[in-house]
């Protein structure tokens, strides 16, 4: 049992828990204040480095183990490159020791410590129905909303039986900061909605058209229907597709971006009949100020891996990275030194990693420090 809990704690630190494992760990945390105290302490890498280090280094037989752990942790500086824990079996062994110590002290009073933890986003959304009713959708909830509309496995699904009942009705799915959700439309098209986004769509598409309205970011897997092109109205841009996989983002105040994974799409500016064709592995960027569209070939992975549970950055500025993190972890960010905004990083970040680990990784490789006041993050030069 101690080894199993240690593995769950290790996966939690790395952001690799499955839904079932997360429920199992949460149950273990709820079983005892002592368990919750240990969990909270392990969210703080300084505790691992300093307090546990005293114990491990004090045991001669574990000195080699501690050396391996410290050598491979984020505490080791890496120039402008995000690096995370790669402890492997050594880390699990360390956590077994931690769990064992806490269990042995189970009869003693354990005083919880106050460690500020900002958790990553989760599956949550608000469904706004035609009649004005609002329904909150949360992680792993299952329900039947109406005939043909169900929620299961973190997905809102519209089935075939809805077609005759909802002609002309619209729903809006709103995703808050720190949230994400999946939607399956009545035609079978699947939409993955990112944080701080919303999609307005017909409950049932008509026989002649399929149109939705997007604010924020979404990844679409569109069912092919040559007779009814699928259209995404993303503020000043109209994206027309026949059957394809693509990502649309309106987050940036200067640009609206569409990245095509496969298939074919055409872009139009609002009020314009000219259409720009986009091919797989191309980015179409609409300039809001100049009202122009640029299409070019790109590495599409940094634009779409959020759907797979990763943030992939390639020579990206800290300002842009913090924009992404602020939406997902629901925090505000302040730069006390303007020069910090333009520091650039390359790295692959687990989307469900603990926020403190990400901050440590980002700031340990450059001359930058940070402090958290509630949900306000302040970055400044050391």
Automatic annotation (TrEMBL):
UniProt-listed Pfam families: FecR, FecR_C
Domain FecR protein: from-to ranges: 177-265
Ranges that cross the membrane: 84-103
Domain Protein FecR C-terminal positions: 311-378
Alphabetically ordered keywords of this record: Membrane, Transmembrane, Transmembrane helix
Molecular functions (GO terms): sigma factor antagonist activity
Protein name, UniProt field: Ferric-dicitrate binding protein FerR (Iron transport regulator)
Organism: Butyricimonas faecihominis
Lineage summary: Bacteria, Pseudomonadati, Bacteroidota, Bacteroidia, Bacteroidales
């Amino acid at each position: 049992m101690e080894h199993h809990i240690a593995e769950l704690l290790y996966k939690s630190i790395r952001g690799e828990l499955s839904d079932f494992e997360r429920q199992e760990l949460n149950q273990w945390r709820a079983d005892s204040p002592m368990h919750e105290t240990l969990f909270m302490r392990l969210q703080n890498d300084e505790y691992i480095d300093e307090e546990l280090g005293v114990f491990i280094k004090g045991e001669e037989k574990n000195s080699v183990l501690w050396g391996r752990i410290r050598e491979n942790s984020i505490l080791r500086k890496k120039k402008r490159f995000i690096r995370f824990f790669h402890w492997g079996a050594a880390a699990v062994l360390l956590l077994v020791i931690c769990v064992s110590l806490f269990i042995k002290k189970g009869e003693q009073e354990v005083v919880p410590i106050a460690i500020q933890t900002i958790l990553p986003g989760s599956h949550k959304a608000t469904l706004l129905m035609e009649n004005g009713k609002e329904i909150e959708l949360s992680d792993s909830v299952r329900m039947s909303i109406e005939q043909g509309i169900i929620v299961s496995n973190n997905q809102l699904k519209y089935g075939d039986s809805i077609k005759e009942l909802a002609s002309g009705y619209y729903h809006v799915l709103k995703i808050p900061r720190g949230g994400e959700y999946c939607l399956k439309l009545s035609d079978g098209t699947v939409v993955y909605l990112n944080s701080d986004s919303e999609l307005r769509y017909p409950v049932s598409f008509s026989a002649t058209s399929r149109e939705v309205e997007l604010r924020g970011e979404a990844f679409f897997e569109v069912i092919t229907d040559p007779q009814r092109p699928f259209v995404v109205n993303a503020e000043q841009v109209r994206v027309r597709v026949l059957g394809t996989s693509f990502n649309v983002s309106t987050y940036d105040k200067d640009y609206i971006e569409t990245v095509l994974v496969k298939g074919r799409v055409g872009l139009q500016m609002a009020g314009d009949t000219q259409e720009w064709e986009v091919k797989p592995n191309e980015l179409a960027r609409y300039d809001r100020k100049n009202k122009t569209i640029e299409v070019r070939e790109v590495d599409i992975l940094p634009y779409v891996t959020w759907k797979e549970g990763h943030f992939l950055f390639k020579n990206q500025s800290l300002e842009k990275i913090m924009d992404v993190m602020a939406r997902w972890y629901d925090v505000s960010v302040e730069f006390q030194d303007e020069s910090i905004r333009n520091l650039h990083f390359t790295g692959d970040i687990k989307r469900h990693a603990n926020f403190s680990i990400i901050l440590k990784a980002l700031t340990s490789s450059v001359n930058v420090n940070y402090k958290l006041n509630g949900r306000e993050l302040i970055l400044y030069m050391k």
